[in-house]
Design brief:
heterodimer, A: five-stranded antiparallel sheet, B: alpha+beta, Immunoglobulin-like, five-stranded antiparallel sheet, four-stranded antiparallel sheet, globular
């Protein structure tokens, strides 16, 4: 009991300190003999997120033994999952416009309010809740405003609130936007699902994969398990590869064969499955070009790995780069097996983009150094600051099981 | 004296024709085919007896009054682009579709192009029995008999085109309901059922009706806009409403091709159990250009951009270097000067090429409405110095022509279907 009171007191003190001192104090607590103090400090540091990384890395250089291990765990956790977009807010009858400003300031995620409802007053209370939970609560309480994710922004607009089924885990949220059931004289009938994963900004998602184990209607028909072979796949393939490191990863899930619930069905009684997310906890930049659009760059014939840009073409939000990349097969095979070599275009605003089209395997592709075209969709006004050839050295995986019940069909 | 004779001749001529009143009496909600035929006759009659026709307006059922009023205005505004409402008789035993097409092609306003599909079409003899039908209707029915498909191409042509349903496809196209009026045919192409489960309550089915259009070459419709539902009545007498815009937390994200069908479609909310629309009335606007303006460039020098244009558009023909090693190309950039590009979205235009040796002759495009200008390109020639990408002699452009429809005018088209089957949800 005394220990718990002591721990609470410590955290209270930590909460009152300035951010640098707070991080320093938490790092010291990571070396504590008390397991609960260590665990609490670890949790606090992951909440601080990326701003804590410089101090953590500095401590890592001089640390040893168990303290070093603790530091490594926290660094990898923050690298993989980014900074949780947490909100602490107490608002009574304040205009949405002002609340959006608070949300944006606390998380760095842009929040846009439709002009027609900018002055609508709402109340919301949150303490260290994720931004998507706060936005959802706010819209639910109001009833006729809804949120959506567009252009890496959260938009709140006038519309009937829709309670989207979701699961929160490890600072992430998996949600279902809608089921789309189509039929017609060209389509025998299929039901597909649109949804998405919300991640802390900067999380290093390598891929996500969805498994639907059951989609059963009230007549007992399980669309995910038909005699001819059912199940669902992601529209982009087995796995969804994100094209940016922003916070929202949309995805669609299609049935393997065209199938749909029974026409007599009144509801989906159970929609069950899981989302697997692989993240890079340690990444190695094999080679990089700074200010990549400033001038052409030719890789040295002897250098490996290497990266060079021959030409590029930018048209609105579409950037096309002709580049030469080279790497050693032996060096990269093991890395590629963890998630593939990746090409990151780092932007001035701190975000990363990955190409829409890019050959990341087989690993020996780089050996012949033939020109490769990489297509990026980036904001028209974005300023690329570096192009990096990156390989994951260490990865973590998260499994988010979901089960949604009693979804009306008619 | 001469005036009196002319007046007498006019009276004698009119004595054999039905009066506006007699024609208007044929218009009723019971028979849309007769009603639209009578409306067409009144529109033609209005050239010489406008006052008499207008007096009948108040007697007409509301929908047909609106149609006739609109048709009178459209005829006055569009002139020859309004199109003739020719009716034809094609009768005779043991005819082939080709003899029928040839006869039909002699009808004023009906120019028909069969090539290069002719040898692929079904041409078994049949007993032709087209009595007093619109020429466009006879054309569509002959296409169906020939197992051919037909539609008005995105680019308005000078001829009606007949296309094969594909080499080796012996089956006729699925029968579809058609609406015919004067030189316009509107066919129901596709019926798609769609249910969105978005967690707001109990979802309804939405039926999306996708249409195709066939117009005689007199009326060059380059775009279809503003579909306005006037009435949709289910077989049980229920009024059907337009489907609401779908809400989504992921705007712009769509995993399947589900954009609107061209040239237009209508989405209706369907209550449980409805499988047929008893009456469907809507109005859609065809956009008709006053002219197709042609811009030509025929003087080129290697590596140089060439410009032409007028008060409406600047056209640049430019050498470009692509990112791929073999991707030299020539771009044709079209920059609107009066109308903002965003307002031109969806408007078709065409670029035609003539090279110094054989190559593809041209392509059709649509303005995207994004950015300040629209770009078309061809990789079949180059304006750059040096050898062709394969080391050989480069293909050079001799002439580039850009055709853009200008001076768009509206031609409202009223459409009525009866007993539209919606098919089962499978």
């Amino acid at each position: 009991m005394l220990r718990l009171i002591g721990l609470g007191f410590c955290l209270l003190l930590v909460g009152a300190q300035d951010p640098a001192d707070k991080v320093k104090a938490l790092i010291e607590k990571l070396g504590s003999d008390d397991i609960e103090v260590r665990a609490a400090a670890q949790k606090e540091l992951t909440i601080v997120g990326r701003p804590a990384l410089p101090a953590l890395n500095k401590s890592l250089a001089s640390a040893s033994g168990e303290h070093k291990q603790q530091l490594q765990v926290v660094i990898e956790q923050i690298t993989a999952f980014g900074t949780p977009p947490l909100i602490t807010l107490e608002a009574q009858d304040r205009p949405l416009r002002e609340i959006a400003g608070d949300l944006e300031r606390q998380t760095g995620i842009p929040v846009r309010i439709d002009g027609a409802i900018a002055e609508v007053k709402v109340s919301v209370a949150a303490r260290r809740a994720t931004i998507w939970k706060v936005v959802e609560d706010l819209c639910r309480a109001h009833g006729v405003v809804m949120y959506r994710f567009a252009n890496d922004t959260i938009e709140i607009y006038p519309s009937k609130f829709r309670p989207l089924p979701c699961v929160d885990q490890a600072g992430m949220r998996f949600f279902i936007d809608r089921f789309i059931w189509e039929s017609g004289n060209l389509i025998p009938g299929l039901i597909r699902v649109h949804g998405g994963l919300l991640m802390p900004p900067g999380a290093r998602v390598l891929w996500m994969q969805l498994t639907v184990e059951e989609l059963t209607d009230d007549t007992g028909k399980n669309v995910a398990e038909l005699p001819q072979g059912g199940g669902y796949f992601m529209s982009s393939g087995d796995r969804y590869l994100p094209h940016s490191r922003r916070f929202f990863f949309p995805a669609a899930f299609h049935p393997v064969v065209q199938c749909a619930p029974s026409l007599e069905a009144v509801k989906i009684v159970r929609f069950r499955g899981s989302v697997r997310v692989r993240l890079a906890s340690v990444e190695r930049v094999l080679t990089a070009i700074r200010d990549p659009l400033d001038r052409p760059s030719t890789p040295s014939p002897d250098a490996s790995p290497c990266l060079g840009i021959d030409r590029w073409d930018r048209n609105g939000g579409h950037l096309r780069i002709r580049l030469t990349a080279g790497w050693d097969k032996e060096d990269t095979e093991a890395l590629a097996s963890k998630g593939g070599l990746n090409l990151y275009l780092r932007l001035k605003d701190g975000h990363w983009m990955t190409p829409q089209y890019w050959i990341s395997g087989p690993a020996d592709r780089g050996a012949d150094r033939k020109p490769i075209i990489a297509d990026f969709n980036i904001p028209p006004d974005a300023v690329p600051t570096s192009l990096e050839l990156v390989a994951p050295e260490s990865v973590v995986e998260v499994q988010i099981p979901f089960e949604f019940k009693d979804i009306p069909l008619r | 004296m001469r005036g009196s004779i002319l007046f007498l001749l006019l009276i004698l001529t009119q004595a054999g024709d039905p009066s506006a009143r007699e024609t208007a009496d044929l218009i009723s909600d019971r028979d849309p085919i007769k009603s639209f035929k009578a409306i067409s006759a009144l529109v033609d009659m209005s050239e010489s007896r406008r006052g008499e026709v207008e007096r009948e307006l108040t007697r007409l059922p509301t929908f047909y009054r609106e149609v006739l009023e609109s048709e009178l205005k459209a005829r006055a505004a569009l002139g020859s682009s309004f199109g003739r409402g020719a009716r034809v008789n094609l009768n005779g035993a043991g005819k082939t579709v080709w003899t029928c097409f040839e006869e039909l092609a002699r009808t004023p306003g009906m120019r028909i192009d069969f090539q290069p599909w002719k040898d692929r079409l079904v041409d078994a003899p049949f007993d032709a029995d087209f009595k007093d039908v619109w020429a466009i209707e006879a054309f569509v029915r002959l296409c169906e008999r020939a197992h051919a498909i037909t539609h008005t191409w995105v680019w308005p042509d000078d001829k009606l085109r007949v296309s094969s349903t594909g080499n080796g496809m012996g089956a006729p196209p699925a029968p579809r309901p058609w609406f015919f009026y004067r030189n316009i045919a509107v066919g129901l192409d596709l019926v798609k059922w769609r249910k969105i489960v978005d967690f707001t309550g109990r979802p309804d089915w939405v039926v999306r009706l996708a249409f195709r259009t066939v117009l005689s070459p007199e009326t060059k419709a380059v775009k279809w806009t503003h579909v306005r539902l006037i009435e949709a009545i289910a077989e049980g007498g229920q009024a059907l409403s337009l489907a609401q815009e779908e809400d989504t937390a992921m705007p712009g994200f769509e995993s399947l091709e589900s954009r609107s069908y061209q040239p237009f479609e209508i989405g209706l909310r369907l209550p449980e159990g409805v499988r047929k629309i008893a009456r469907l009335r809507f109005c859609v606007t065809a956009r008709i250009p006053a002219e197709i303006r042609r811009y030509e460039v025929d003087q080129f020098s290697a590596g140089r951009t060439v410009k032409t244009g007028d008060e409406l558009y600047d056209i640049f023909v430019r050498p470009e270097e692509g990112l791929e090693p073999t991707s030299d190309y020539v771009s044709v950039r079209i920059r609107p000067k009066k109308t903002p590009h965003s307002q031109l979205a969806g408007l078709p235009f065409r670029v035609l090429y003539k090279f110094d040796r054989p190559g593809p002759g041209g392509s059709g495009y649509e303005f995207t409405g994004q950015g300040d200008e629209m770009m078309a390109q061809t990789g079949w020639c180059t304006l750059r110095d040096g050898p062709w990408f394969d080391g050989g002699k480069p293909r050079r452009p001799l002439k580039v022509e850009v055709e853009i429809p200008v001076g768009l005018r509206d031609r409202p088209v009223y459409v009525e279907f009866r007993d539209v089957p919606l098919g089962p949800v499978r």
